[in-house]
Write a structure and sequence with these properties.
- This protein is an alpha+beta fold.
- The protein folds into three domains: 19-71 and 194-271, Periplasmic binding protein-like II (D-Maltodextrin-Binding Protein, domain 2, 3-Layer(aba) Sandwich); 75-185, Alpha-Beta Complex (Dipeptide-binding Protein, domain 1), CATH 3.90.76.10; 276-483, Dipeptide-binding Protein, Domain 3 (Dipeptide-binding Protein, domain 3, Roll), CATH 3.10.105.10.
- Helix content is 27%, strand content 21%.
- It has helices spanning 3-6, 61-67, 119-131, 165-170, 182-185, 234-242, 257-260, 291-300, 303-311, 339-349, 366-379, 393-402, 418-426, 440-451, 455-472, and strands at 41-46, 75-77, 84-86, 89-94, 100-105, 143-150, 153-158, 198-203, 207-212, 225-230, 248-249, 267-272, 276-281, 315-317, 355-362, 384-391, 407-412, 476-487.
- Strands 1, 8, 9, 10, 11, 12, 13, 14, 15, 16, 17 and 18 form a twelve-stranded mixed beta sheet that branches. Strands 4-5-7-6 form a four-stranded antiparallel beta sheet, covered by helices on one side. A two-stranded antiparallel sheet has the order 2-3.
- The chain is globular and about 70 Å long.
């Protein structure tokens, strides 16, 4: 998922950690929910406000922090190893030729507006994504049809074997199931009607309020509700946790992680994530269309220094996307920080110096600002002057979409399959290929890998594509961060996950 899910997931979405600031008036959700508020409401401090609440349209991680608790998908990643397990689908099977997937749906499930869940809702939700070419339509590129065999059975037909289909439709709530006709009945940017453990009560510029859904198919939550409070500054979020004003946060100052280990007022956990952070340059703007210039920048940057400054040891530098230890990880690392070699590449390019480069970041993800400042100091000696452009996340997303940038930094979160890490970001005209990269051989390899059923062969295909993506500097990969979260001592039922999915349905307050 980009933190635009791009961090995009990234994405933040991925996918993709996108998030935006701003907001508006508090809005009514339009549906009935359970009770909430009072001492049994969990207050969670998050770094940014959702840009919107339509799961099919957003790529912003701050949106999915909320939506994870409101919507369901057919299948879902297990918290242990992120393999796909049943959710709204109780089971599924694949035809012998791999072209037909049949999902048997769970009975007795209702949406927050009281309507009953069945196969028509799945067909509607998936066709909406495909027909309207919404954010995750690329996940259906092999899908020929989605049909309701009967109220409890859905059949998905694909044009070629698609071994990662469960991950494509269940990896995160961008593939959520909505009630049939929801987009016509509700304003999904500000309203939400899911089947999840919590209902949306209000959404405004200071917080998002959820209430327990008593008729949730998995059993009513222990909490009466959840309040997502937006606290951009990590130090302020931590102070609020220590003072008891909030009970959970993922906005922890990286430089304080080690000292917090012995803090009795905070329970802190950190695990390796499936995320990556990167920088990318606009191929439509000179001189960044020149591969020698991009390679010079990739050679000048000391990833270890950038990683240490941004995450204080809570990350691992990497020149590719997938973190070490994953079967599909690559050890390809052609760039060694060398200012003199970088200057030689710039000389070879023939580009006149100095080069001016705007580097767009957002203070709603403070590590991007810190990393950009280090990068600027590393590029100055080779004749590149970096203007670190710090904007709110809504502006960041808009400028990215408009191509209004020289370069930007962000991350992709919640990646489960190599398809999530590489496909839409680097295939020609991919929905998340904002940098404008195009390499026909990379296209061929990514397409072949997406339908390859043999795991070892699939890894080889991705490794070939990755080498070209890295050499071309489509993305300049920086590091894989740890997931770091903290909560009040005595809070139980919460599990920290490598995909950063935040599930509060089993949480009990002390």
């Amino acid at each position: 998922m980009r933190t635009t899910r791009l961090i995009s997931l990234g994405a933040v979405g991925a996918l993709a950690l996108s998030a935006c600031s701003g907001g508006g008036e508090s809005v009514d959700t339009g549906v009935d929910g359970g009770g909430g508020g009072g001492d049994n409401t969990l207050v969670a401090a998050v770094g940014a406000q959702p840009d919107q609440l339509d799961p099919h349209a957003t790529s912003a991680y701050p949106s999915f922090q909320v939506l994870e608790n409101v919507y369901d998908t057919l299948v879902v990643p297990s918290p242990d190893d992120l393999t796909m397990v049943p959710s709204l689908a109780e089971s599924w099977e694949t035809s012998e030729d791999g072209l037909t997937w049949t999902f048997t749906l769970r009975e007795g499930v209702t949406f927050h507006d009281g309507s009953e869940f069945d196969a028509a809702d799945v067909v509607y939700s998936y066709n909406r994504i495909m027909d309207e070419d919404l954010q995750n339509a690329y996940r259906f590129e092999n899908v020929e049809s989605v049909e309701a065999v009967d109220p409890q059975t859905v059949e998905i037909t694909v044009s070629q074997p698609t071994p990662n289909l469960p991950a494509l439709i269940g990896g995160f709530k961008g593939m959520a199931i909505l009630p049939e006709g929801a987009a016509e009945e509700y304003d999904l940017k500000t309203e939400a009607v899911g089947t999840g453990p919590f209902t949306l009560e209000s959404f405004d510029a200071s917080s998002t309020q959820l209430a327990a859904y008593e008729d949730y198919w998995g059993g009513a939550p222990e909490l009466a509700g959840v309040e997502f409070r937006y606290i951009t500054e990590p130090a302020a979020a931590l102070t609020a946790l220590e003072n008891g004003e909030v009970q959970w946060t993922d906005n922890v100052p990286p430089q304080q992680i080690e000292s917090l280990q012995g803090n009795e007022d905070v329970q802190l956990e950190s695990i390796p994530s499936v995320d990556y952070w990167y920088m990318s340059m606009n191929f439509a703007r000179e001189p960044f269309a020149d591969p020698l210039v991009r390679q010079a920048i990739a050679t000048a940057i000391d990833r270890e220094s950038v990683t240490e400054a941004a995450r204080f040891g809570a990350a691992q530098a990497n020149q590719t996307a997938i973190p070490e230890g994953n079967f599909f990880a690559s050890d390809y690392a052609p760039f060694e920080a060398d200012a003199e070699a970088a200057r030689q590449l710039l000389e070879e390019s023939g580009v006149a110096l100095p080069i001016e480069m705007g580097l767009m970041v957002t203070d709603e993800f403070p590590e991007t600002v810190t990393a950009a400042q280090v990068i600027a100091s590393q590029l100055e000696p080779i004749g590149i002057t970096v203007d670190v452009q710090t904007v709110d996340f809504a502006t960041w997303l808009d400028r990215q979409a408009q191509g209004d940038f020289d370069a930007f930094m962000l991350g992709w979160l919640g990646n489960l399959d190599p398809f999530d890490y590489y496909h839409s970001q680097h295939i020609t005209d991919g929905v998340n290929n904002y940098q404008g990269y195009s390499n026909p051989e990379v296209d061929r390899l990514l397409q072949a890998a997406s339908s390859e059923t043999d795991r070892d062969t699939r890894k080889e295909l991705y490794n070939e594509a990755v080498r070209m993506i890295v050499d071309d500097v489509s993305y300049l990969y920086l590091y894989n961060p740890n997931v770091v979260q903290a909560w009040a001592p005595g809070l139980t039922g919460y599990t920290i996950r490598p995909d950063k999915a935040i599930n509060f349905e089993d949480v009990e307050l002390p």
